[in-house]
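Thread: "does anyone have the structure for this chain?"

Original post by V.I.:
We have the sequence but no experimental structure in hand. Need at least a predicted one for the grant figures.
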Amino acid sequence: MPLVDDDPRPPARARPSALPETEAMADDDQHPDIDPPGTARTPDVPGRPTDPGGSTPNPYGGDRVAFAPKPRPPLLQRVAPFTAHLQGYLGRYLRPDLLAGVTVAALAIPSGMAYAEVAGLSPVAGLYALLLPVVAYALLGSSRQLVVGPEAALALLVASVVAPMADGDPARYATLAAMLALLTGGVYLIAFVARLGWIADYFSRAVLVGYIHGIVAVLVVGQLEKLLGLSIDAEDAVPQLVEVVGELGDTSGVTLAVSVASLVALVLLKRFVPSLPAPLVVVVGGIVASGAIGLADEGVATVGDIPAGLPSVAFPSVALEDLAVLVPAAFALFAVGYADGVLTARSFAGRHGQSVRANQEILALGAANAAAGMTQSFAVGASGSRTAVSDQTGGKTQVVGVISAAVIALVLLFLTEPVELLPKAVLGAVIVVAALGLVDRSEWRALRAAGTAEVVIAAVTMFGVVVVGVLWGLAVAVALSIVHTTSRSARPHDAVLGWVPRLGRYADVSTHRSAQITPSVVVYRLDDRLFFANATYVRARILEALDGATTPTRWLVFDAEGVPTIDSTGTEMLEQLIEQLDAMDVRMAVARAKAPLLEALDASGLTERIGAGNLYPNAEAAVAACAEGPGPT
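Reply from O.Q.:
Generated one for you, tokens below.
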């Protein structure tokens, strides 16, 4: 018979120690309201009070919950989080934000122009992306530190989608890129309405690591044309590299000299004068040298005409057949941009004891992309490097973004003529150094520590991006990550348990040689949900555990502590298992089942098949009762 609260402790052979079960699930974890009739309770044991002496009655229930969410801020602060910091702003935050905003602008101007080139657009499109999109995020973003704008991965995605569609027409190229940004903003809006902020939690780190390192390789190869002064027709990384090798004899000596000087200057400034914005210094130096020496007359390609003034606000117009290609790409841009954005925002927020709201980040990034699409720019995302610069220079709020946008607007209004002299080789050097800065060997070491499969996924992602292109490489990588996750659930961790006296609990017999086995009872623990992908495997493992038992088995105790849920395939498997056990003259008991599992067992009729009296709060009570009680008849 099952144990009840006032039963004496079972004999030593059933419970080798008087210590209580100390694993995660204990008897007080099961709410009386959901315990089925006849469920056994843990007997009185030393160390666990049997009355409320010195403690208070359970205060939960009714209107009170155990997990209390944070209070919601006022509506204005929820819609525009930056307003929470306006009180006392001038005295507390204006000075550090002003310094950070000017510094971020200095870094953003050359990188924005460079990434516009990566996207296949005029450099001015990169500057446009640093205006209204940045302000839109500043108004709506929940992160105090995050800085948005053109980014390498997104720029490459834009180029991979738009270049084949544009047929070499610059005007059509710009329109398609703007529409793609607008559509990306639309995808963000859909995700915001659907409250899909949780989706970033399921974007594999291995995929992101491999993707970023693949992007590095593609970026570096893509800049060889500018650095060597060549004219390359290929659009994908591998064909580009092959074409560059074949045309090395046509390298422009002057262009190569400019490239080498720029690369050396960038590396030395970053190494020995890290406080200076090296890209801006090199860009300004390139402009001065180009004007003084006349590099354009020496055959060095320059940025060329940049229209002065601010961008107009206009809706890009494309044909319906173009939308059929752009819409899937917009979803890819959303996936990459949001995953990178929310990870970066959380990282910097955590350093300051702050938090970000995932769904609010979706809205803010969506508004930034929509603003980019309406101002002749291209898709934008989080900038890890500019966010780090803002944080290091003391930026406190999103006013940093507004100030940086104002500085860039002044450049567009009054300084476009000097920028036209900038050699493209200098932009190429800025991109190469920035890309190589993304290489992080510690990320690969962390993946290796997590398992070989993680490294394989990252490597496949990296080579996929390089060989088959950014978009398809990402698709293959995400699919591989999903397959890997499913395969792990299909072969979940499990164990046969025995009593370990020094631990005072049941534990895995394969790792604890001192574990004591109760004759005629096999205790099997599953450490994952029971569902269609692993049901057959789990049944086979249970039967193997019975076959491996050292004594004839009369009882199977299924320790369900690690089983949060069960689906219809899982319940069907348990029904079949019970039939097999009946044929083997073995009965089944269940220990430590949580409320969702108990409800599923009730709904499927399995509680009746198993017997309500054979549901126990822990493995100790189950084994004690099974060892004492009658076996199968």
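V.I.: this helps a lot. The beta strands are 148-149, 381-382, 494-500, 505-508, 521-526, 555-559, 587-591, 615-616.
O.Q.: and The chain has 25 helices and eight strands.
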